[in-house]
Each structure stands twice: as structure tokens, then as C-alpha cells.
Amino acid sequence: MSINKYTPIHRVLTTYPQLIHRLVKRDSRYVSLINPVSTCTLGHCTTIESIAFTVGDDMETLLTYLKGEMEREDIQFKY
User: Fold this and answer.
1) pTM flag (> 0.70)
2) Can you give the residue ranges of every domain in the chain?
3) Distance of CA 32 to CAs 1, 56, 71, 74, 75, Å?
4) Where would you tag: which of 4, 32, 66, 78 has the fewest CB atoms within 10 A of its CB?
5) d(CA 77, CA 53)
6) Helix 48-55 and helix 59-78: axis angle, to 10°?
7) pLDDT tens track for 7-65
């Protein structure tokens, strides 16, 4: 799965649901992503760029982190 700053966060989190808890562990400001109602309703239009802005995180850092975690999961399940 390829992601960029315009990718909806819902698409990432439905493909890799374990990322929710990793994001919260990385920074507690992502705790709102644990709520399935907000993730399902707002997540369809909320992009990675806007969620990074909302919590005050650097977008490039968040994007790099997400790509690394997704790659790690893909490798883990591949072997």
C-alpha cells in the first residue's frame, strides 16, 4: 500500500489496525484515533497531513513513521 500526505487516515488504519496503538504509544496526542466512531466517520475525509497538523506533529515525520511501520508489518507477515 502506497501512502502520501493526502491518504485518508481511515484507509491506513483499516488496512493496518495495529498502527492505532503504536501511534498512541509514540505520542499520546493520537488517543482520539482509538475511538472507532471518530475513526470511521471523520477518518474518511481526514488525511495524514491534517491529522499531523491537528495533533501538532510534523507531517513528514509521521509519514516516515507510518511507512516504516507498514513495511515492518508487511515483512513480518511475508515470512
Assistant:
1) yes
2) 9-77
3) 24, 14, 24, 25, 28
4) 78
5) 31
6) 120
7) 998 899 889 999 999 999 999 999 888 888 777 677 678 899 999 999 999 999 999 99
